[in-house]
Amino acid sequence: MKRLTSATLTTIAVLVLASVTASAQNRLPNNAQRALQWLQCTQQQSNGQIGSGGNPIARSSEVAFGLAAAGQDATAMKTGGVSLADYLKTAVSTDVGTNGELLIARASQPHAGPTAAVITQLEAAKGSNGEYGGDLYSDALAILGLRAANQAVGQDAVTFLKDHQQPDGGWGFGGDQYTDSNTTALVIQALLSAGLPSADGAVTHGFAYLQSVFVQGGFADTPGAAPDGNSDELAIQAILAANQEVDQTWRSKLDQALAHLAGLQVDSGVDAGAISNPYSKLFATTFAPAAFLLRPLTSSGIAETATSLLACPVSSTATPTPRPAPTPTPVVTTAKLAQTGAADDIRPPLAGLALLLLGTGVLMRPRRRAPRR
Question: Which domains does the chain carry?
Fold first, then answer.
């Protein structure tokens, strides 16, 4: 075998490290901080929940997931003496999608409550056809929640989702021909978490649909619509869950979507940090921290890298932004993220390989070139 020269090894190492560094630079911790600050300082209620109307369990669970992405325990977000974790500990729902999100939150946060009861509820809700809820969005959330809690998901549940994929590659909330990017991005993540490879036809066809809604530097809900924050967030998570960012085309879309989402963030005033949305800033912002910090819904546990929480401005007051009723329910060093079905994150091993290659290159150099001490 032809021996690699020192120069070749160094070049390979530099390229690998450049890839790792570029990925790390994609994270937008400052934007995540500002979104979490707005959520805590203007949306958290005295009982610890996020938001006062709509579905506070779902919104609170999404924020808890964002805190996990920031390396923060849900006990850190509190109004007065009651924390977000305190609220989630006692949260109870009979809705499948909501329970899916609650299970994701509890699997990601060590003090957000036990998972056993929610697991039992979701498993009991499953029909003989593999369906968990009354819509595909809820089905996807149920699967993601169960996988986050390290529970097996049957092949019938996977088949049910695949059977409802439409000819355009997308999935619709109601399981019919009216497809949308939010449901599609969520189903893609659910299928990946259940063990489907990113090369599976259902997944690649789903990404073809997401590509069809990418316009003006962001993701739209449906083809022909304008891009919006919710669609950006879920598409970003789907790209990461499938490890599509290693493909240059999808890497470019990921970068553009992050920039578009950051551009939607309110700069000043009482809503500074929120993601602007004509219907509900709360609904548009709860998943933003996780997206800014590059965490897909196929991950669970507290992130290794901590992003500090910002103190509330002196003038902040709670101004709840209820979620519209017709809108479907969407998504200091500690333990390493637990991947549930997503492609393994290859960046840390690559970084180690790069350092090894650099070290090998140094050893291969003639001693006279070694730096003097």
Answer: 31-293 (1.50.10.20)
